Amino acid sequence: MVESSDPYTIRLPKPGTYCPRTGISRSGLNTLILPCAANNFDPPVESFVEHREGCSRGVRLIVWSSLKHYLEDLRENQQAERQRVDKPAPKADRKGGAQK
Fold this sequence. Notes:
The protein is built from two helices and three strands. With 100 residues, it is of the alpha+beta class. It has one domain (9-86). A three-stranded antiparallel β-sheet has the order 1-3-2. The two termini are 40 Å apart.
């Protein structure tokens, strides 16, 4: 879901700081946007570098909708896992089988 106040991109926060929208550290975001061993060299969140003419370095921009979608999926998967773990196991009957 894209809200009208949602930006298209957000900047990678400065070193030692956290993303003001998500609270994720710069290194945590780097793990999500850059190929590395932690993500099997397949980043789950889309990003790109904006290069300006005459500049030797660019600005790393994170596609907000991609990050938001990743975080929503993470939340849903954790909720589903929590419900699966919290669900009581079926009680066994006297013969050792599970009751229906």
